[in-house]
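Q: We require from you a single protein entry containing the residue sequence and its fold in token form, and nothing else.
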Amino acid sequence: MKEIILLGILISTYFMIIAKRMPALIRSFRYQSFFLFLATFVIAWGEDQPDLYIICGLLFIIKVSLIPYLLYRITNKIKAGQDLGLIVNSQLSLLCALGFTYLAWIFSAHLFSDLNQAMVSILAVAFFMVLTGLFLMISRMTALAQVVGLLVMENGLFLLASTVSGGMPFFVEIAIFFDVFISVVIMGFFVYRINKLFTHIDVDKLSHLRG
């Protein structure tokens, strides 16, 4: 079961890397968050921790439902669904993702050599998600795509913290979820305002506006 969930996270992340349009990127983020929800639910079921069920519920409500809904709404509102502003094309991005997978696996195997194979695999996927999120933020020029890259990094850090430390304290996890949600709302508002003022959200063009 855990292997299938990890495979789902990997595949959805690869889909994000090769996505050329904003709706495809958001849809893949929703799938990734859903598999992360399943992973947390399996841990909660195995350890019988009531706190983890609440974390699962928040994960589903905020990252699987509310955030993708807000991103879809903003995308439709500003009509930014056609282009992600790719600096690196999809084929080269896929090669980079394969490289990230290899690097994450080597790094996890060396850093956590005392852990079993299953744990090393989970950590490798978590590091891969962090690297992919960073790559999306650097290689995509539209502000909305960079917001999604930040969310992917946060998903990777969530999986990493859950695996290494067995999860953060309950109230810290809840605070982080709400911080992420509020951050997306604020960033979405700014993206909407930027599009309203400059008629685009390409950060490369916006950089030329600096005095």
The mean pLDDT is 80.
